[in-house]
Amino acid sequence: MPFIPFDLEVIQSKWEQIAQFNLVESGVHPLTLEELLANGPLSIDELLATSINYPHVNGIPALRENIARLYPVAANSSVGIENVLVTVGASEANNIVMQTLMGPGDELLTQTPTYKQLWGLALNTGHTVKSFGLLSEAGWAVDIDELNKRLSSKTKIIAVCNPNNPTGYIMTEAEMDAVVAAAERVGAWILADEVYRGAERLREDETASFFGRYDKVLCLGSMSKAYGLPGLRIGWIVGPADTVEELWRRHEYTTVSTTMLSNKLAAHALSAEVRPRLIQRTRDYIRRGYPVLESWMEGHTGQFSYVPPQASAVAFIRYHMAVNSTELMETLCKEASVFVAAGDAFGMDYYLRVAFGQEKALLDEAFSRISKTIATVGS
Ligand SMILES: Cc1ncc(COP(=O)(O)O)c(C=O)c1O
Question: Cβ(257) to ligand 1 under 6 A?
Fold first, then answer.
């Protein structure tokens, strides 16, 4: 069985340090250490006095406590530090969930379009992947009929990304209920990647979590997107305590632990004093950047169309030109030095994913370069 590389990350490895304008990163412009330490519980002196030791293998208690507080306490479930495992980004979380849950013959049921890490992980370990769509003609609503059609007794995990990458779509309560009902019907796990929770563009309340809606739910979070701290390489899994223990055993094999400095900085970032400031900063970037994208789109109505994203710093844009999305992405890198993601990487050709969580001047220049280049690509 040939190894399937992770397309999106391969192109990022290749282009992100070369292209002058990076519109691939789906989080907002990252914070500096100085900005992060501007207020809150951790002082610079305390940081400097930190012994660079291994932290707790499953994450320092202060961090796990702050993560646990991000989840609703449902009638039949409370969230404590025993429900939390800290991982090297949501990437490690996805890896160890697949290692832990998927057995011989098990199937993954996931969305199209989506961030395709789980997809590749499943195929590379010999599992079958089935998919249900998000419907662009319905504003990226979940195709519930297709979800139910693809469901089988072999479905081990139903994976959802909510808010969705690359569309920024937020599921309705009815759609969340339909996913839970489908999982319950066959006893499948729900793996909810919620890394964009908090990065809402249009509303102040945070996207509802899947946690507590069903007993077999694992929720992923990360410092990378909604908090603007991708270089901390801190993510997490929240789930039933016994499953978290099993995941922890895989974490010991995979990375042993995250780092002490990152644990302390993430605990600080998620503290009651600092977290609201970071969420507001992310939303400010998204809400300032989006109108720049919107007005550029208005100038290209024949060439591009899109459903405005409800959350995240990316828009998934349909282009109306007869060129493959990977080719178009490479042309933009080479000729405009603007790096956007190809729809191919999310399972849909004729789309580009364009990030707008940057300063206006940078976006203006990048969009004007895209306009010039596509004028030469033709229709
Ligand atoms: C939906 C989604 N999940 C997980 C990840 C992995 O993020 P990280 O490992 O930085 O937490 C990404 C990164 O782009 C993502 O978009």
Answer: no
Q: If residue 142 lies in a helix (H) or strand (E), which one and from where to where?
A: strand 141-142
The residue to mutate among 95, 121, 165, 262, having the most atoms of ligand 1 within 8 angstroms of its beta carbon, is 165
Q: What is the pTM of this model?
A: 0.96
End-to-end CA distance of the chain: 38
161 ligand 1 Cβ < 6 A: yes
- Which of 222, 223, 314 has most ligand 1 atoms within 8 Å of its beta carbon, as the pocket-test mutant? 222
Ligand 1 centroid from CA 222, angstroms: 7
What spacing in Å lies between the alpha carbon of 81 and ligand 1's midpoint?
Answer: 22
Ligand 1 centre and the CA of 195: distance in Å?
7
Q: Is the pLDDT of residue 379 over 80?
A: no
Per-residue pLDDT at 74 exceeds 70:
no
**pLDDT tens across 136-183, in order?**
999 999 999 999 999 999 999 999 999 999 999 999 999 999 999 999
Distances (CA, A) of 375 to 200, 318, 331, 332: 33, 16, 12, 11
Q: Determine the distance separating the centroid of ligand 1 and the alpha carbon of 9, expressed in angstroms.
A: 10
The CATH classification number of 40-271 equals 3.40.640.10
Percent of the chain with pLDDT over 70: 98
From the CA of 376, how far away is ligand 1's center (Å)?
33
Domain coordinates of the chain in residue numbers?
7-32+276-377, 40-271
Quick: pLDDT tens for 264-291: 999 999 999 999 999 999 999 999 999 9
Looking at the domain 7-32+276-377, which fold is it? Aspartate Aminotransferase, domain 1 (3.90.1150)
Q: Give CA–CA dist 240/221, Å, rounded.
A: 15
Whether 111 is in the pocket of ligand 1, judged by its Cβ within 6 Å, is no
Per-residue pLDDT averaged across 321-336, rounded?
96
pLDDT in tens, 80-96: 999 999 999 999 999 99
| DSSP character string of 298-346 | HTTTTTEEEPPPSBSSEEEEEE-SSS-HHHHHHHIIIII-EE-EEGGGG
